[in-house]
Amino acid sequence: MKRPTSRARQSRRGFAALPMVTFFGLFLLMSLAMVYKGTIIKRDQAAKSQLKIDYHQREEALMRALVATFPSKVVACLKNDYAASNTYDWNAIFTDAIGRAAAATSLTQDAQNAIGMSGVRTADVGEDSVATVRSWITDLKGNVGQVTPGTTVYESDFTGALAGKMPPFLRPPAGLETADVTRPIVSGEKIYINQAGLGANVVNYPKYNQIPYPNIRFGYAEPGQPFVAKRNWWAFQVKYGAGPGLTKTYVLSLYEIPSQLPIEAATFAEIGKHNDGSAWGANVSITGGVYADSLKMNGAHGADRLAGRQSIEIDGPLTLNNTTITQDFDALGVREQMQAAAKSSILPIALSANSGRVVFYPIPSGTAFLNKPAGTTTKWDQYKGGAIDCKVEVEAIKMVGLVDQTPRAIRVKFLTSAGTKQTVVLERDVNWPDAAQPGGDDIPFQTELSHTGRSCLTFHPSRLNAWLVSKGGDTVVTNNSVRFAVDPTFDPLTTLPVSSPPGVNDMSIIIRRGRDLRTFTRGLSIVGPFRVYIGDDLNDMQIPVPSDPSTSSMTEFYPPMSIFAAELRVGTTAFNRPFDHKGQMGSLQSGGTAAWRPLDLKSGGDDIVHTGQIQAELTPLQSPAELPPISQLNWLVTIEEIAN
Length: 644
What we know:
Distance between the termini: 93 Å
Mean pLDDT: 89
Number of helices: 7
Largest sheet: 9 strands, mixed
Number of strands: 28
Radius of gyration: 34 Å
Shape: elongated
């Protein structure tokens, strides 16, 4: 019998270890496969996250660029009388926004060449051509280069998931029913009709109504609370990505906002101090918000919101709406801390630049607001308002002489009940008796000299209604705004054009016997490029509160009134008479660095009205019933996504 060799025993041991080696090999292989799979999944997730971030950044940039470029395109459309054009149609608007936002490419070719990356393949999958990106933007039916307007003509397009989510619709002007599809139409003839979402009676207030302020950081008004405005809006869709992609629906809105804050100016405004450095007295209070292009606050005086376009400077800590505000409110991290403490992203102080998809655009006014444009006017001229909207025009056409600009003849134009214009020329020694002559007390326009010797045309509002009716005109319910002007072309040998600002030899306006304006149930506005003296108590008699849901909280009501003038004087003499004002104060200045101080008032003798003589209760408008016939206008452009 042979003994087994050692080789045979070694073979049996090796054969027995094979299953174990195989097991561990498979285990390691599966582990590597799982790690590899996990890495692939993470890379895929990272790619998707990066893609989402890229599209989100492009979306945000595109929306911000869209609201930034939109006002200029609307102005261009108005200046061209709404005519079709490829310079301001929706294709042009979206193309401009894509270019501003760099939504097509993250780096231009020039930038790639500058950093030596020309020809390098990009990993940014969101990049594409401008034409392709523009094709992503359509109306609700998928038409490129068009939008779906928020007008009654297209109300039936907002069905399904969008039904009941849209703002109130506007009725478009006749002849422009479908124009909004291809270009933005903003018109005073776009009006509301009876529907839900409006706080005032639409029969009485179809142009501007009471609607909720949008939920944005820019605090012109309090988010969600009613304010006086009209909302134009257009809906469109953006499809992000190839294939099925992701489609979002947006609403681009342009709010037309009549000036309604206690203090409002499109220039640098200093609040709380006079020019001599003295502080406002305790008899000055502000209810609501304050807006200015640039704002300097010396105390809050009761204001609960501050809004600025460029900058806000605070002289010491302020308490606004139970929130303490300091000078560094806009510093990095401070605003976020305030938002965390308030548990809200909306603060009582805001700059439009920090408000996201928002642009606030005061309609330019300046001295042009006080004068009627010469020659052919455009829709833009008519839209801006001011002197061009006045129903009564009073023009001095003949003066005593070049050194004495006391009117000898005036031309008065007004509306009849049929809506036509009628003209009456009043001339001394012909049909214009002075105040001491028989019949002189029946005419609302007379002449006198101011305390400082300025030539003045005196306006008696209380006489206007009866005089207009006697001349075949409509009542002051219709003829409720008066433009004063000088026409030097009629008699250039005696009549001078008005300087800006008015000189000592220029004609001035005095308002007398204006305490009782109860016949002006729809208000009174006075406009002119002159120095205006308030000779007596003005608008001191109440009328019944208009019956309207928007006025239900009011207990007193005065006829709405506005005065737009180059200069304003309190009284006509050197006597420093008290100034008691309730309502709003604003400025026609636009831009500039010189401070406008709303309570730096002067008497008829050009002396400063002492702060102790000033009592001002500055309050905002609450209802469209409080709007005067003539007012300044602002645009607020926003964009929001509608969940569908």
